[in-house]
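SEQUENCE WITH STRUCTURE:
===
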Amino acid sequence: LRLTEKDKQLLARHKTLKLQIELVPSSCWFSNTRKNVKQSEWDRIRKSVYAKANYLCEICGGKGTRHPVECHEVWIYNDNNLTQTLGSFQAICPLCHEVKHIGLAGILGNGDRALNRFKKVNRLSKETAEKIVSVVFKEWKLRSGQKWELNINLLKEFGIDINNLKSKGKLNKYRFVKIKSKINKQSQAANPRLSPTASSNRS
């Protein structure tokens, strides 16, 4: 399995879209901050993110009906040095968040709704949207065959002691990148056909 030139063109276009799909490779260990920190720590992160965004979706500018926004983790994947970096947290409405986790949406029976949202926000035809989704899953499958090093230094900016997480055995499986510099952006989901696990960080 490899990416063709057409695949690469579609992936390049995907990166320019307002609402992108973010799939976490199944081989990546730390793919849900919420489950690996204390509830009080997670509350501190998400409330800070919500307030900064004024409780509006950072993608479409709207808000949900049951609750305005949810906290999404943005992961960056460096395919050259195989590093998975926690780049930022983003406040997004439930419908846009569902697109980020489009694999999970499919498993839950909401795949069509997520695809329609992806099309609408990005103003894509159904054919183009489906082609992009397909190649994003292809990239996910390729990345899932690799072993990734973990960079979660961003958590330090929220007062979370990463060494404390390690000492409690939460992260003892993970390979860490020893980097002290700041980081940037990119995220999480699963392929319903390949049935990897997926999770969503809701409010």
Observations:
- The mean pLDDT is 83.
- Helices lie at 5-14, 39-52, 94-100, 102-107, 111-122, 126-143, 162-167.
